[in-house]
Amino acid sequence: MVRQELSQLVRLALPIILAQLSQMGMGVADTVMAGRLSAADLAGVALGGNLFWPAMLFITGVIMSITPSVSQLHGRGQGEQAGEVVRQALWMALVGGGALIVLLRNAEPILRGIEVDPLAIPIAGAYLKALSWGVLPMLGFFAMRYLCDSMSWTLPAMVVALSGLALKVPLNALFIYGGLGMPGLGGAGCGYASAIVMTSQMLAMAGIVAFSRMRSAGLFARFSWPDFREIGCLFRLGAPIGASHFLEISMFSAVTLLIGRLGVDAVAAHQIAGNVAGLTFMVPLALGMAASVRVGFNVGREDWSSARRSGNVALGVSIAFGMAAAVAIYLCRDLVPGFYTKDPAVFALGANLMLFVVAIQIVDGAQGTAMGALRGYKDTRMPMLFAGLAYWGVGLPLAALLGFGLIGVPALGVYGFWTGTIMSLAVAAVALITRFQWLSQRPHRIRQLAGR
């Protein structure tokens, strides 16, 4: 039974892994290509991204309520109801995306208030204004992607994401460095390239949903005005998911913004290490998304033992991958920064931070996969509370304490910030795994969460 579950998990997870790596690859392309222009451009893109992604991941987390809702419908043999779920989620995306666009177009005063390096502020502001054109298309893409994933068809997201990455690199080169009669826009060019890619991905996914086997879900069968009862149900389920994402990524963003006070070299080196950690995290994150689908499907069938097995197999694979990734990064720690920068100071600091990336692998992967498995049970509120405690109750205060050397503690700089981050992820991993093991053995509570 474990072997069969592993086979099904891998079949679902592999396309998600490639899709997530492609999405992450776009960020890597921004980091590498902006970094080769100047440390200020790299810092501007990094700081801009650390304002954009917390808000965006909150909104995508809210619409991720599609995943457990549709996967449980699929398990009950009611997949034709999925289209209405997605239509109502898109109304939430429209409201949230509109608010985010306003924020992105007025971001420079926020950056000045945080007192980051002034060289990076105009670059970050221009980058965010360009990126704002892609917000609504990106949310539309994710809503349709979650529909396909929840119906156990993860291949479309992989194909669209890989195509987007292939488009992103030449567009970056054109907008960052200039060409074909266009002036180079520096770091802001990353934002324009991303907006174009986001729009193309949304259109591609819409075509797949409209003209493939996903037509049975009925997304485009009719138009639906907002149903505030359904939107309320989705929001109550999705808001804790979005809040959990926001609490985690905003802690990382807050750390980056605080490191901004240490200068562009520290920000650039931190961004390199964060990119590497983010790349490896795509695998356990994808395993968590696959586990959410598998757990939700089995909950829909009321097969409690299979749901528990799905989560445990995903956790085992995630921890094994984390161990392998830690070894690989340790062996390559003096090579990786050279792919991102030619600046000697940034290279040296980045190489030292690779040791912290090694230390983060197992705990980061375990908490990400456990969060996804719990989502399959529609268990989102307790994980949100755990996230708040771990990231903002432990992680950020400890990071600031060690980084700046508060209340008599020696200042460790960027190394102190990474130490606090690792501790927060360890707390989250222990809490979430414990929650999964407890919940997965209580059918009555699972039925309550499923609304039955």
Structure description:
Helix content is 80%, strand content 0%. The protein has helices spanning 2-35, 39-63, 66-75, 82-104, 108-114, 121-131, 135-150, 155-177, 188-211, 228-259, 264-300, 304-331, 344-376, 381-404, 414-439, 443-450. The radius of gyration is 21 Å and the shape is globular. The model has no long low-confidence stretch (mean pLDDT 89).
Architecture blueprint of SSEs:
Blueprint: H1 2-35, H2 39-63, H3 66-75, H4 82-104, H5 108-114, H6 121-131, H7 135-150, H8 155-177, H9 188-211, H10 228-259, H11 264-300, H12 304-331, H13 344-376, H14 381-404, H15 414-439, H16 443-450
Helix pairs in contact: 1-2, 1-8, 1-11, 1-12, 2-4, 2-6, 2-7, 2-10, 2-11, 3-4, 3-7, 3-11, 4-7, 4-10, 6-9, 7-9, 8-9, 10-14, 11-12, 11-13, 12-13, 13-15, 14-15
List keywords for this structure.
single chain, about 450 residues, mainly alpha, 16 helices
Which residues form runs of ≥5 with pLDDT under 50?
none
Secondary structure tally: strands = 0
Rough shape? globular
Q: Termini, distance in Å? A: 27 Å
What share of residues are in beta strands? under 5%
Helix content: over 70%
Tell me the series of helices and strands, N- to C-terminal. HHHHHHHHHHHHHHHH
Main β sheet profile: none
- Overall structural class, as computed from helix and strand content, comes to mainly alpha
Summed over residues and divided by their number, the pLDDT gives a mean of 89
Question: Can you give me a brief rundown of this structure?
Answer:
The protein has 452 residues and is mainly α.
